[in-house]
Design goal:
Elements (H helix, E strand, L loop, with lengths): L23 H17 L1 H48 L12
Helix pairs in contact: 1-2
Length: 101
């Protein structure tokens, strides 16, 4: 079977798939051989599953630490905003004061 992306006339920019067609019989045999390997050696499936779970948890930890860091940054900005508001209300700084270039 030929992928549609190989037909240059179907796409304005021409051919979008550089892949080559594979006979279904060859692909079926390859898939079946790999499936038999997984059935014979289920520990391979377990190891891959464990690796993916570990990667997912690590990603969640990275996300959690990033969220904590961002919350701290927001808190710091809120304190700075309060400090500037206090300085303005006491007359130490004026509305026309520029803090950034």
């Amino acid at each position: 079977m030929r992928p549609d992306g190989q037909d240059g006339h179907r796409w304005p920019q021409g051919r979008v798939c550089a892949g080559h067609p594979i006979r279904v019989e060859v692909l079926d045999e390859l898939v079946w051989e790999q499936t038999k390997q997984l059935i014979q050696y289920p520990e391979v499936v377990f190891e891959e599953y464990s690796r993916r779970i570990h990667s997912k948890r690590k990603g969640e930890l990275d996300l959690t630490s990033m969220m904590i860091k961002k919350k701290k940054e927001i808190h710091k900005q809120e304190l700075e905003k309060k400090r500037l508001l206090d300085l303005y209300q006491t007359g130490i700084i004026h509305h026309q004061t520029h803090f950034f270039c």
